[in-house]
Amino acid sequence: LRWEFTPPGQKPAELESTAEVLVLSSLAKDQEGVYTCSLEDYFDIVKSFNVTVTEPVVITLPPVSKDATRASTVRFNCTASGKPEPNVTWYKNGEKLTLAGRRNLRSSVDRLRLELVISGVTSDDAGVYQCFASNGHSSASRWARLNVTGAGADAPRDVRCAPVGAATVALRWLPPADDVMAYTVDTTPTDKHGGVITGQPHTNTEEIIKVREPLEPYLFQVRAYIPASTKKNIASDMSESVLCQGQGVPIKLSKLDDDKILVSWKQFAEQTPGVVEWILQYKPDDGEEMTVERNVTLAARVTNYTLTAPGSQPLLVRLLGSRSSEWLPQNLTLVPWTSSSQDADDGEVKLIPQDLEAVEVTEKGFTLRWRCEDSPRYTFLVCVRKIDGNDYCQESYDTSAKIEGLQPDSKYEVRVQVRVPGMALGGAFTAPYHVTTLPKGPHRFKDLKYKYVNESTIRVSWSDAPARYTVYHSAELKMPVEKWAAVEVVGNTALITGVQQTEDTYVMVAGYDPDGHSSVITVPQQVGSIEAKDLEYSYSSSGVCVRWNGTGPREVHYTQDIAQPVESWAVVNVTGTSVEITNLNPGPVFVVVTAAGSRRRYPTPLTIPERPADNFYYYLGILRQSFVTSDQL
Description:
Blueprint: E1 2-6, E2 13-14, E3 33-39, E4 42-51, E5 55-61, E6 66-69, E7 74-77, E8 79-83, E9 87-92, E10 95-96, E11 103-107, E12 114-118, E13 127-134, E14 139-149, E15 157-165, E16 168-174, E17 182-189, E18 197-198, E19 206-210, E20 217-226, E21 234-235, E22 242-245, E23 252-255, E24 260-264, H1 266-271, E25 277-284, E26 294-299, E27 304-308, E28 315-322, E29 338-339, H2 340-343, E30 354-359, E31 366-371, E32 379-386, E33 391-396, E34 400-403, E35 411-419, E36 433-436, E37 446-454, E38 457-463, E39 467-474, E40 485-491, E41 493-496, E42 505-511, E43 516-517, E44 521-523, E45 536-539, E46 543-547, E47 554-559, E48 570-574, E49 578-582, E50 589-595, E51 606-608
C-alpha cells in the first residue's frame, strides 16, 4: 500500500506510512491537501481523500455602540476571521438590512476591512445593529446600538415629483418651518447598486434634478437645515421618499408625401439600451388642454413611426419609454409635446440647438457646447458679440466651438444656428446665451475655503468659473489622492458629508479642460487632544479625578508604567469634562486625554504624583506646673 500527499498548489510527495488506515493526529494547516492511496502493481486502484482544515469563526473587531446626530455619517466594524473565510451579514432590529442608498459597505481608511456605513443619519436609523459571520461550519454574531441624538426638526412635507425630460425630474415640497436656511435633495437609484447622491444646498422649495440614467426610476428625499442658537445648524430628518423617473424621449419629425409625418428616435434608442417598450402619444394641436391623447404601443426594436397630419390639422406628438414591462404611473403634465406644424422637416432647417453650455472659461475665451438631433447632417454658425457690440461669427462642424480673442472680465452674448452644408440659409438662432470672461490675474481655485454646515458637514467653495470639478477629501493625508473619497460637482461649491469631529479633513479640488488642481487645505478637527498644562487633577477617596475644559467625546488613556506605549494604556471613553480613575496601585499615574478615535500624535502625558500619605496626627499638650507659696516653705 502506498500513500501520497499533495499540498495545495504543490507537487505530490510519498508518505512513509503503508498502513491501511492513515491517521492524522494533531491536525494542522500544513496537513491540508489531497491524500491518495494506491496498490503497487495495481495502478487502476486508486482512492483519494481531500482534507480541509477549518477554523471556527471569531469576530475579532466587533461593532461598538455609538451616538450620532442627524445628517452625520456612522461606521460600524465587524471584522471576522475563520476558515473558510466567513461572510458577514447585517441585521437591524432583527431584520436583514438592505445594503443600498445611504446604507452600504465600504472599505475602511486602511483598506483592510469592510465597514457598514450609514450616511445622512435620520431618526429612523436608530436601533440595534447585529452582524452575523458564518463560513458554513461555524458562526458568530455581535451587536451594537445606534442612538440618534441632538435637537431635531420637522422634515419637509408633501414632496411631489414629475418628469420634465428623459433624464430630468422636477421636485416640489412644502417647508417645515419659516426659518429654514437651506434644503438638500438625496437621489437614490432603485437598482440597489448605486449610492445616494446628495445635491448642493439651496433655499428654494423646488428643484430640477438631472439624473444619471434616462428612463430609470430614482427615489428622492428632501432634508431641511434650521438655524440654531449655537454655531451648528440643526438638520431635520429626511422627508418621505417619492419615486420618479425621467420621461419624454427626444424625437424628430420629418414631412413625407400625402400629408404624413415620420416620427423617429433612432439616435436616442442607440444611446439608451435596455428600453423594453415605447408608447407614442399624439393629439390634435387645437389649443384645447383637455383633449385626450391617443396611444400607440411599440416594441423596443421600433425606432420610427408614421402618422397622418395634414397641414390644416397639425398634431402634438411625444414619445414615452420604459425599461420595465410594468410602466411607472406618473404625472406627465410637464413632459413636453412637439407640434407637427412647427418642427416637421419640409426642406427648410427648423432645428434649434438646445442646452447651450460654456466651459473652460478663461480671461480671453471659452468653449461653447450644445445639443442637436442628427447633428452629423448639419454645420453650425456660432455668433459672439460683446454687449452693445458687433457680431463675430465662426462655423463649426461639431456640437462645440472654441471662442478666442476676447477681452478679460467682459460680458458676451452667444447664439447658434443650424445650417445645411453648402447652403447659405439656415434655421433660427438660439436665444442669446450670456458668458462673462474671467478677470486678469490668477483665478483658478482662488479663495478655496470651507464652512461648517453642521457637526459632520462642511461646504467647500472657491472663486472660479462654474464648471465640472472633482472635490477630493480624506482624513489620511499620506493616502494617495486617487483613493480619497470624491464628490463630482458642476459649479464652484460642494457639500462634504460624514466629516469626523475628531480628525483633520484634507480637501483638494481638481478641474478639467485644462486639467489642474488646487493645493490641499486642512479642515482642522473640532475636538482635539488636550495638553498636560490644560489638565487639572485632585485626589478622591478611591483614586484621582482629572478635569479639563471643552466639549466633545474624549478618550482618557492612563497607566502606571510609563515605559509602555500609549496604545497599550488603559482607556476610558468620556463625553463630559472630567473622569475619576480608580483601582490604582501605589505610585504615580500618567494621563493623556485625546479626542475620541483620534489618530493624531499623543500629547505629553500629565504626571500625577503618588497620593501623599494621610497618617498625620496633631497632639495638643498641656504643661502643668506646681506653684509653692511662701506659707508652704
